[in-house]
From TrEMBL:
Name under which the protein is recorded: ribonucleoside-diphosphate reductase
EC number in record: 1.17.4.1
Molecular functions per Gene Ontology: nucleotide binding; ribonucleoside-diphosphate reductase activity, thioredoxin disulfide as acceptor
Keyword Cytoplasm belongs to the record: no
Pfam families linked to this entry: TSCPD
Family: Belongs to the ribonucleoside diphosphate reductase class-2 family.
Biological process, per Gene Ontology: DNA biosynthetic process
Membrane-spanning ranges: none
Catalytic activity line of the entry: a 2'-deoxyribonucleoside 5'-diphosphate + [thioredoxin]-disulfide + H2O = a ribonucleoside 5'-diphosphate + [thioredoxin]-dithiol
TSCPD domain segment(s): 6-78
Length: 87
């Protein structure tokens, strides 16, 4: 399980599991329960790169980021750490 502390959004953190570049599970702590449950259902079983492409840069209201955008930041950080470990 990986943990990412968010910034600038209502959700406080994102917890996720990845297996072979596929999102196995995701949980948002805090935030809008219905919307975040919907995001969870949409992304579980999907490839990391597909989610990054779809969600990167999505704003929330007048904020420059959103829970989906924060998820992309978490996934990019995950990919960076994986690349460093295999180098």
């Amino acid at each position: 399980m990986y943990l990412f502390r968010t910034s600038g959004v209502c959700a406080k953190e994102i917890r996720f599991e990845i297996e072979k570049d596929i999102i196995k599970s995701v949980e948002f702590v805090g935030g809008c329960p219905g919307n975040l449950l919907g995001i969870k259902k949409l992304i579980e079983g999907k490839k990391i790169d597909d989610i990054i492409e779809q969600f990167k840069g999505i704003p929330c209201g007048n904020r420059s980021t959103s829970c989906p955008d924060q998820l992309t930041k978490a996934l990019l950080l995950y990919k960076k750490k994986q690349a460093e470990q295999s180098a």
